[in-house]
Structure formats: C-alpha cells, structure tokens
Known about the structure:
Elements: E1 26-35, H1 39-50, E2 55-58, E3 75-76, H2 85-95, H3 102-122, E4 137-138, E5 148-149, H4 156-170, E6 174-176, E7 179-186, E8 192-199, E9 207-218, E10 229-230, H5 239-246, E11 251-252, E12 257-264, E13 272-273, H6 279-283, E14 287-289, H7 309-323, E15 328-331, H8 336-343, H9 345-353, E16 363-372, E17 375-377, E18 389-391, E19 396-397, H10 410-426
Parallel strand pairs: 1-2, 1-9, 2-6, 9-18, 10-13, 17-19
Antiparallel strand pairs: 3-5, 4-5, 7-8, 8-9, 11-17, 12-16, 14-15, 15-16
Bound molecules: succinic acid.
Amino acid sequence: MSRPTGRPATGATAPATALRAPAPGWATEADVVVVGSGVAGLTVALRCAAAGAKVTVVTKARLDDGSTRWAQGGIAAALGEGDTPGQHLDDTLVAGAGLCDERAVRTLVTEGPGAVRRLIGTGARFDADEDTGEILLTREGGHHRSRIAHAGGDATGAEISRALVAAVRAAGIDTVENALVLDLLKDGSGRAAGVTLHVMGEGRRDGVGAVRADAVVLATGGMGQIFSATTNPAVSTGDGVALALRAGAEVSDLEFVQFHPTVLWLGPEAQGQQPLVSEAVRGEGAHLVDADGVRFMRGRHELAELAPRDIVAKAIMRRMRERGAEHMYLDARHFGAPMWERRFPTILAACRAHGIDPVTEPIPVAPAAHYASGGVRTDLRGRTTVPGLYACGEVACTGVHGANRLASNSLLEGLVFAERIAEDITA
Ligand code: SIN
C-alpha cells in the first residue's frame, strides 16, 4: 500500500506514524464510531444510540465474530443472597496480586449487578431456577462465593452476543462489517476525529475509507493470536492496542497476559484457537489430576482447583515438568451424562468432536493464552490519554484486573465501563 496522497476525505489527518494505505476513497459521518462488536462495543453503541447519538459500529469480521461469543463460564456479579460488592472486591484484589486499581475495582463490583440487570433488560436470557425464576449462580477460580451467572449452560457469551446483536439491529444502528481499522484520525488540536478503515466487501463502502466522528471507542478485544496456542478467535490480533500506540495513547500492563489453566489439549503441534474447558467445570466439582489420578492442587491452595487462575496454571505447568508430561487431566466423569448434557453442552460437544468423551474419560488439558489484562490505559470514564479516544473491554486497561484477572470479570468490565463511556460521551 502507498502513503495517503493528501488529506483523508474526512478533513481530519492521520498521525505521522499511520500505516501505509491509500487515501480513503469514501467517507461517512457519525457522532460516535465504535470499533469492535463484542459486549463492550455493542453496549457502548446501544447506550449512545439510546441517548440520541448517531453511531457507526465497525468490526473486522461479522458482528458476532469476536471473543464475546466464545465466553463460556459466565459473568460475575454480586447477585446472590448474602453476597456483596465488598466480597467481590476482595476476591478481585487478591486475584490481581496487589496490582489492581482499587477505585476501578470498586466501580466494577458496585455497578456490576445493575449492569447485568440492564443487560437482561436488553434481552439476554440467563439460566434461572425453573420454580423461583432466580438466576442460577456458579463458582469459578478465586471466587469465595457462587456469583457467576451463566446462559445456555456454558454458552454465556453466545447468548450475550445474540441479544446485543439483535438489539443493535433492532435499533437500526449503522454497522460496517469486514472492516479492518487502520488508524485514528485527529483534528488540528490533536483530538480524535474518526478512523480510517479497510473494508473487504463489495458494496458502497468498499476498500479504504473513513468514518469521521467526534468520539472514537476502541473495543477491539485482545491479542491472543500472538501466542501459538490460545483460546482466542482468529480476529484477536491486537489491532486496537497497535492503533492506540500509533496514535500516541498510553498503554499499560501489557506483560500481564493470562493463561487459562484448562484448555483442551489437542497434541504438541496444535496451533491457533483451542477449545476452552471452562473454570465453571471445576466450579461444579471437577478435579485436576495427573496421569496417576493424583489431585495435585490439594494442599497447594485453600481453594484447591478453584484457586485464582494464575496459581492453577502455574501448578499445572510445574506438575507437567515434574512428570515429563505434555498435559494434565480434568476429571468430571462423576457428573454423569445428564449433567454434562444440561450444564456443559458446548464443552461436551467440543470434546467429543476431538474424540474425548468426558462422561467416560478424563479430559486432557494444558494452559493456553487467554486474556490480555493490560491494554490501552483509561480512566474510570474509559478515556484514554488522547482526547476523544476511549477504550473498553479487553483492549483497555482500566486497572480492574491488576496482574491477573479474576474469572468472569471480563464480560462485566466490558459492560460496566461501556455504560460509563456512553454516559461520558452523551452527557
Ligand atoms: C471460563 O469459562 O473459564 C472463562 C471465563 C473467563 O475467562 O473469565
């Protein structure tokens, strides 16, 4: 690609560090451009549109192709009887290994329950008790209480994505799919003024173009594809962090990449996205064992298999090294077929598709890259260090996760800070 010839069609300029690309051949205008279409991006879009803003959502593949769809375990919030935001705060701070921003965590846990209820109001259906209608809650690593709401058993992200995509379509929000974002546009004062993007389509908006907007929200997800084995989909290539760096925004905590302890082991040559075996399986009572059936998490941590994720992942790696093994096992045969089918249909199907039947045999598992705890640094309103540029969800670093994200806090973070960003933009 060659360098832009002259100013982009928007009248705003791309930074000197911009990618080499042809000048935009088309342009469109909005009040807000949201880049990415997971829980964070679509929630910002919906809330801004509800407040009367003209919103355009651009996304690299299809609207439902991001990481949100793959989230299994659920969304954490102090919704259960006897649970409080304070207890959720304590668990989050411990998992974050002393490096969380406590104000950000307090915001997350305090606003979380309301944000989940508003998500339900948007159309997401969580698993609930048939008699009482109460949302069913499970446990995951690092949580001292059952506070993880789930949907479709282990298809929480898919349900959230379905509900949000349907709401975005119903609201008539402008969307541009198959659009790789290139660079941030800035006005003369250095304020964000839109983005350039490359659309691989065949319609009116094809090739390199520009969306001009007063506010730009990065919600591009993570960067798991940097690693050879990851739970992240193919689209998780760190585009948002790269754009932000080129635009001069500060990033922080990029070294804190979380490895999920239990990813289905598909052999030493397996590469790219690997099937996740949710922590919720351990939350419901599955055991981690070595090839001799020894539960090696016992005695290592008071929560054993439900210790924070970094501790479990490290213990698995240590045991693998000690035993010269390529993986460990997750044993949940005692669930029986009915529970597997009802509670974990997605994982059951994925295992069976790879020739493993968790009903009759332990599942081979090993850690793989899962989540970028750091990212584009933001304040509590999602503002980055570049005026007019916001970041939300996995691409952002709000300070909530510290060195290690507490299980199922990511969907919640996307939701809570998306609402805050929308409020800031439309105030
Ligand atoms: C899982 O279901 O184990 C993943 C949940 C998360 O990443 O928080």
